[in-house]
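User: Can you recover a sequence for this backbone? Please restate the input before giving your answer.

Assistant: Of course. Working from this structure:
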């Protein structure tokens, strides 16, 4: 008798298991049949951790960097899968022209590159201003702003560009909303809208590779100032940490925090 009861128990467990598997198979089939077809113009990916920030000046984690690299651009990028590592001009028009003493970098920018704002909040038409040398310098000064608390400052810029460490010290002693981004930094200048000159503290042959680091991405000064003003007036407002306004090939159309992008 105990053997018969055990056999009946095993049989019922098997039928229950079979029923659960069948239900799961039906549910999967139904879900696949009612799912919208994938849009060929949408990038699909899975991220295994929550996003910390969409602000390229602040972000230095793997998840955020992978997203930001699709929306924002640096002066240079890595030419995959070339080995040894090789750079190509991204927002720059060509590779840097380096002076004989290795201290001065002259970089020309591409023309006609615009920032895009899919939410049409900072820029009503969705198309922002043209990216210019002033935006590049602003972006790097922003990383060097004590109040932004960028982990990328020490990685990319600290102790490298003449006068930038002084700018950092100035922001540390200045109230957050009083920082003057037009304050001169000796080692960063724009002879014209499409040319940047960088003066280094000492020769640094690897510096050009740091200009391909996501933390050096170019943001729109106008967009950042728009969101900074919103943050001052509305305690519930967000900034570039939630809204992507870049020049890259992709736009972030929807950001449901901790759910999907």
């Amino acid at each position: 008798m105990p053997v018969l009861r055990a056999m009946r128990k095993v049989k019922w467990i098997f039928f229950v298991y079979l029923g659960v598997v069948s239900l799961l198979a039906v549910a999967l089939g139904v879900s696949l049949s009612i799912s919208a077809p994938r849009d060929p113009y949408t990038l699909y990916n899975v991220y295994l951790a929550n996003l910390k920030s969409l602000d390229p000046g602040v972000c230095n984690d793997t998840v955020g960097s992978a997203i930001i690299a699709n929306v924002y651009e640096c002066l240079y990028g890595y030419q995959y899968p070339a080995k040894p590592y090789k750079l190509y001009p991204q927002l720059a028009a060509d590779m840097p022209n380096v002076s004989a003493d290795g201290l001065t970098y002259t970089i020309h920018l591409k023309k006609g590159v615009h920032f895009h704002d899919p939410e049409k909040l900072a820029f009503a038409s969705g198309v922002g201003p043209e990216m210019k040398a002033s935006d590049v310098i602003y972006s790097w000064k922003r990383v060097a702003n004590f109040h932004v608390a960028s982990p990328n400052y020490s990685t990319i810029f600290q102790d490298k560009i003449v006068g930038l460490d002084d700018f950092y010290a100035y922001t540390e002693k200045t109230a957050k909303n009083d920082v003057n981004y037009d304050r001169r930094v000796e080692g960063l200048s724009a002879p014209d809208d499409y040319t940047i000159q960088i003066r280094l503290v000492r020769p640094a042959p690897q510096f050009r590779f740091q200009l391909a680091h996501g933390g050096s991405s170019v943001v729109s000064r106008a967009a950042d100032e728009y969101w900074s003003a919103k943050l001052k007036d509305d305690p519930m407002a967000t900034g570039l940490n939630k809204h992507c306004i870049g020049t890259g090939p992709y736009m972030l159309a929807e950001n449901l925090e901790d759910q999907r992008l």
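That completes the design. Residues 1-35 form one domain.
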